[in-house]
Every structure is written in C-alpha cells, then in structure tokens.
Amino acid sequence: MGFDTHAISRNAFETALRVFASNGITVFIQKNFDYTPTPVVSHAILAHNKGRTSKLADGVIITPSHNPPEDGGFKYNPPNGGPADVKETSWIQTRANEYLANEYQGIQVVDFDAAADAKSTIHHDYIQPYVDDLGIVVDMQAIKDAGIKIGVDPMGGAGVHFWEPIVERYGLNIEVVNPKVDPTFSFMRVDKDGKIRMDCSSPWAMAGLVDLKDRFDIAVGNDTDYDRHGIVDENGLMNPNHYLSVAIWYLFQNREGWGQGVGIGKTLVSSSMIDRVARHLNRRLVEVPVGFKWFVEGLGNGTLGFGGEESAGASFLRMDGSTWVTEKDGFIMDLLAAEMMAKTGFRPSEIYADLTRKFGDPVYERIDAPATPEQKAKLKALSPDMIKAEKLAGEPIQAILTEAPGNNARIGGLKIVSENGWVAMRPSGTEDIYKIYAESFKGEDHLRLIQAEGQEIVSNVLK
Questions:
Q1: Of the four, 52, 179, 180, 404, which is 20 to 30 A from 368 by CA?
Q2: What is the pLDDT of residue 352?
Q3: DSSP code at position 128
Q4: Are strands 421-427 and 433-440 parallel, antiparallel or unpaired?
Q5: Closest residue by Cα to residue 231 from 328, 160, 222
Q6: What CA–CA distance (Å, rounded) separates 221 from 160?
Q7: How large is the average pLDDT for residues 398-419?
Q8: Angle, to 10 degrees, between the axis of helix 240-251 and the axis of helix 273-281?
Q9: Which helix (H) or strand (E) holds 32?
Q10: Catalytic position from the list 9, 22, 42, 65
Q11: How high is the pLDDT of residue 306?
C-alpha cells in the first residue's frame, strides 16, 4: 500500500492500515511512512508475484492523481499489477457505498499505533529495489556517459525521495529544482482555469519548469502519484501526443530484445501520428478504448512493447522484452527522454519535428459540449448504423467506430475516421458534457470543420 502527498492521503492511509491490521491482512508499506508512487507499487506487486501460484499480492495506492489539493482517491491494483477493471472497481464502489449508508457498521479497526506495530504490517523499502531495476528498462549508462543535464521538478509528488537514490546509483547529472512537499501545493502555478492542479502535461501548471528550460538539456515533471510525465527541452513543454509518437519511434528502433511481433498500444483518442509511425515501422498497432487498463494484458505478457494514452501516461517493456510494470510510469518516460538525446544527439522536440516532415503535421484538440444525462446515455449506446453521414469535413468517411479495433471493446461513444482526420465523442462520467477529441493533418481550418461536423452528427442522433 502506498500513498501520495495530497493533504488527506496520509489520513486515508492511516485509516486503511487500521482496517487492514484489524483483519490480519499482511500489508507492505514504505518504511518511515514515506510516499510510494503508483508505478512503484505495480513494480513491487509483479516482483512479489513472479513465479508464484498462490499467496499473490495486490495493491492500493491512495491518490487522486493530478487533481487539486483538496481531492482524495483510492486506486486498486489486482495481482496483475495494473489498474483494476470495471468489474472490480464497481464491486468496491458498491461495498463502500453500503458501508456509508449503514454508517460504517461492520468495519473493524484498531488504533494506528497498534496497526503500525502489528505483525501483519511489514515496513518495507520500496525505493532501492525499484531504483536498482531502472537500469534494465532505460539505458542509464548512456545518459551518464553523455553527461545529459536533467532538471527534475517532483511537483510535490510521491516520487520526491527517489531522485537522490537514482543519482547515487547511476551517477546521473540531475538537479532537483523543487524538493518541497506541501499538501496545499502553494508552490504550483495555477492551471488554465485558475485551479491548482498537478497536471504535468499542462503548460500552465508546468510554467515554472518551462521557465528553467535553458538551464537543462532535458527537464521533467510528474503528477502527484508519478504515473504521468511532462517533458521539457529547449523548445518548451512537449505536447503529450508528440512525446508518445517520439517515444514509439525511438524505442522500436533501439530495443533489440523486442521481437518483431511486439506491438504498439494506443488509445483511440491518441494522435494518428502514432498510426503513421507504426505503419512505417511495420509494427502491429493495437487501438483500445480510453483507459490504461486495456494495456495491462499486453504489457504483462510481452505482446505490447509500449502502451500510451493522450493524457501523458505510458509505459514500456524492459530491454530484453520482459515486463517492467503494468501501470503508467512517469519515471521511465522521464529518463527515456534523456536516453534518446544521449543516443541520437537530438532533443525529443527535434525528433518530433522530423516526424512531421516525414508523416505530416497534425493539429489536435479536445473540447467539450453540453449534454443531459439522457443524451450521454444515448451517446454511450450508439451503434455505427445510426450514423448516416458519408463524409467528414469534405473527405469520405473510412470508419465509424463504437468498438475499439484493437480488442473489440465498446468505447462508450463514437469515433469517425477519414483519410486526414478523425473525431471522437465520449460522454463525461462526472459532468453534464460530452468530450470531443479531434485531429487533422490538413490544418486548423480543417480541424474546425471536423469538430463542427462531428457535433452535428452527434446532435442529429441525440435529438
């Protein structure tokens, strides 16, 4: 069990430990009650379970991810080490609401000191085993030999105490520019809506690190539980879709231990630049619904070398093609940027610029539109035969998708694809809106047409 640096995470951690201990559940926690990032818990689950058929470990990470300081949340990771599936999360949600409705009757607890001292509570070092293994997934020696100067802003997150051991273990030229941990996150720049949000893909939240870009070859930031990455070089903060494309381009040409059958995983709202890169590399592309849980099986059995989503979360295999973690891992995506600069001599943004010269320069945007609960339910249940349009922004429609082509899972919405653009629409799970993702390889005017026609198509079927 791990927790992050949000204000209520420590209290939630203490409460959870009291319940676990009272029920005799063996729980491994970071010694000295320190923070534990999401990918580190996944790494520990897989390390514990390797070769076992019984007494398997699972995990809990107490975090609301990149969300504002007042928020809280629990992540459950089953024995496969990845995010839980909807069947598991629904069961947890139902049971939690039952306990709330019954005013917590039936919950056993002991006091915190007794829980911390219980035989079932194991005070474990999560940091060094994870740090020691980083060299089998990222070429740390190449980074050291090239003298890549790396600036790290932990953004007050759970990985704050991992960077010094990384420096000591691998001799990297890393400067932690902001080691401060403050549960109010008062040191953060506000996001575009004025809220404090530790979103490492946001140019507003990352403005402080971007200001320091000229001091470093590569600068990196992460969200609070370290499952997302933000990459800065001399050209500023990289768009997450751009960095995913660059990472795939580099990895699949620089990992000799990955077999030719190893595929590329992307979510259906990630950039089609990935599709074009995959075709050029002659690699199998696996396009799945939104959610990293869809990559867990492929990363776990080695059939996917890389899995990534447009919200700046990704992970990849070890150099020998075996499983690293089955969660998004911000650490390795950070260090990969330094590796690719060390090995190629080019910054990630420069590699992306070269990709646009090869494959086109897409324009991507996500916007929102209002929708009632009834309209959202209807959007979620659409089928392709309900769409009568034949063209999208002047181009023939090539595909109308309500299931992901990579695994035939329902996407909970709609994606329409043409030769040089696409639009996807999904209902929000928490607000009375639906999200519109769109991309064009023909410029911003074409993108606006795609967005407008996508909304019109959906409006016609939601009437």
A1: 404
A2: 98
A3: H
A4: antiparallel
A5: 222
A6: 11
A7: 95
A8: 10
A9: none
A10: 65
A11: 98
pLDDT score at 314: 98
CA distance 357 to 273: 12
Confidence label for 431 from pLDDT (cuts 50, 70 and 90) = confident
Q: Is the Cβ–Cβ distance between 185 and 69 less than 8 Å? A: yes
Q: How do the domains of the chain map onto residue ranges?
A: 2-128, 363-462
Q: What is residue 428's predicted lDDT score, i.e. its pLDDT?
A: 86
DSSP states along 205-237: TTHHHHTTGGG-SEEEEE-TTS-SEEEEETTEE
What is the Cα–Cα distance from 130 to 2, expressed in whole angstroms?
A: 14
CB-CB contact of 441 with 272 (8 Å): yes
Domain boundaries 2-128, corresponding CATH code: 3.40.120.10
Measure Cα distances from 73 to 15, 63, 67, 127 in Å.
Answer: 13, 5, 10, 22
Distances (CA, A) of 231 to 45, 180, 203: 27, 20, 11
pTM: 0.96
- Quick one: CA torsion of 374, 375, 377, 381, rounded to 10 degrees? 140
Q: Domain 363-462: what homologous superfamily?
A: Alpha-D-phosphohexomutase, C-terminal domain (3.30.310.50)
- Token readout for 240 is 């997450």
Phi, psi angles (nearest 5°) of residue 233? -130, -165
Count CB neighbours of 101 within 10 A: 9
Q: Which pLDDT value is given to residue 463?
A: 77
Residue position matching structure tokens 């500023």: 236
**Residue written as token pair 């043409």:** 418
pLDDT at 283 over 80: yes
Give the model confidence (pLDDT) of 432-441 as tens digits: 899 999 999 9
Is 54 noted as a catalytic residue in this protein? no
Mean pLDDT of 206-235: 95
Torsion of CA 362, 367, 373, 378, to 10 degrees: -20
Per DSSP (E only), the strands in 12-132 are: 27-30, 59-62, 74-77, 121-124
Measured CA to CA in angstroms, residue 357 lies from 238, 347, 354, 440, 446 at distances of 17, 16, 5, 15, 19
Strand-pairing partners, residue 62, are 3, 74
Buried b (16+ CB within 10 A) or exposed e, 287-300: bbbbbbbbbbebbb
Q: Which residue has the tokens 């396009």?
A: 287
